[in-house]
Structure formats: C-alpha cells, structure tokens
Amino acid sequence: MTLPALFLCAALLYAAWTWLGGRQVPARERPDLLGGSLLTLILPSLLTWYTLVEYPVWAHLTFPFSLLAWAALLLVALTAGLIQLARGRRASGWPLLGLPAAALGTGLLNAAFSMISPLYGFRLIPAQSGKRRLCIHIAESVFFPTRIRSD
Where exactly are the transmembrane stretches of this chain (predicted)? Predict the structure, then answer.
C-alpha cells in the first residue's frame, strides 16, 4: 500500500469507528459525538498534509519528524480518550480513541496484505532495502510500514 492509500484506509476506519460510536451512545449525545469527531480530525488532517509533503524526502532524512509527531498525537489521543471514558463522557472519549484504533487497524491491514501478496505471486507493497536501526524499524512498522529508505 502506498502512503496515500494508508491514509485513506485510516480515514475509512475512523468513519466506521464514529458510526459504531453513534450506535453506542444515546440519541441526545449523538450531536456531541459528531462534533467531537470533526474537531478531533483537525490536527490529524494537518499532520497528514505535512507527512505527505515530507514523504518524498524521507530517504534523505536521518529520522522523519512526522513519525515523532504521529506517535505523540496517537499517544495523547489514547490517553485523553481513556480519561474521558473513565469519567463517563462517552461522546467525547469515543472520537479520541478512534485515532489510535484507526492507526492500529490500518497497520494490521497493511501487514495482512504484505503477508498474503507473495503467496499469490504479486506484490502490493514495495520491497524494503538496507539495514535500519531498531527504533526506526519499530516506528516504521507500527505507523508507516511501507516506507522505503535506502541506507
């Protein structure tokens, strides 16, 4: 999968997460859920734009800054979402938990496609080359498993 395809998959998973949340909350809280999910998407959409701009020069960077920003955003969203759910505020916690859930789901789908594609004789994901440091490899496999970097 290419990077734009990963972002599209994450957006679809987030929309499904929000739809599922709309079915879980009472009808009077649904407008708050929709407003919260739209507000939650402001920062990720700016970060997506930055990542797509930075992506062509990743091979020349020691470590892409957008990976750190995504990790920080997902950690903050997970923490804030769990705090909101612990306080009983399901309409505001559910959209925040959708960001890490969509990222995890996208990573798992990408890993599944990369395992299945060699069995059928075609490759959906470009081959990765070169040795990588362990921390970069872990960050890439979790957040951007298709990143190609020539060392």
Answer: 34-53, 65-85, 97-122
